[in-house]
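Q: My labmate handed me this sequence with no annotations at all. I'd like to see what the chain might look like in three dimensions before we decide whether it's worth expressing. Could you predict it?
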Amino acid sequence: MSDNGRVPRPLPVDPSPRLPSPLTEIDDDRFTAHGVRVLLKRDDLIHPDLIGNKWRKLDPNLAAAAGRPLVTFGGAYSNHLRATAAAGRLLGVRTTGIVRGDELAGRPLNPSLARCAADGMRLHFVDRSTYRCKAEPDTLAALLGAADARDAHVVPEGGSNTLAVRGCADLGRELRGLADVVALPCGTGGTLAGLAAGLAPGQRALGVAVLKGGFLTAEVRALQEAAFGGVRGDWQVVDDFHCGGYARVPDTLRVFAEDFGQRHGLPVEHLYVAKMLHALVTLTRRGAFAPGTTVAAVVTGTPEP
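A: Here is what I predict for the chain of 305 residues:
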């Protein structure tokens, strides 16, 4: 039960969640000139508040929490924090966000964190060195105690845990037989780990890393081993399209995103989706996809309002 004594309501059925999410073909000469067919998997339309892969990751964690408070982690512009806060509002569940960067405490909240607070999330700011150690048992226990969240269901940064990975396998199942390659932007790797496991034999998953560091392949492998007992599916990570790292959006990428949006009537989110779409255009130009290939691109989010 929630703190107010009411049994949490299930996620609203009307108007969402909308599953399977829509799949639409686009006509773009940057692909058709190379014989490549592109479909957009509109996971951004699943739910108005719990958008895209955030819904797929949070839904099984909400079920496991069974009405207990939720605590999770993220940076100052974390989409995951916003989604968790929205879930708490929808269900009447208390949420706490442990935010990287104690220098942010006492400052005016940016629009992302202000949205979290408006949805009822308690924000607890910690220094960056402590945040890096958040998965260590002693540090985690201290953080939960300091945030008065000892009884909470803990969801990791980005929402990528075993429950989330298994939930994201449904995304792959929805795309079975509909594309040769399924591409998506990746932060923590949980969606890719589940997607690849859900695809049919002969299909390939392509993760476009939005953070630099080259660590994501090992992370996805570890997530699959934890969720399924071993590596599943045919997948790979490309590390060349992060544009300098997370939240780095050079002017060239902004121009690309605006142009893509105008061509296809799609508001393009910059931190994740634009990097994936730019990667697909570049890889197609380089001949990475054979003529006749159908590529499904997963749209995981929407731009900030």
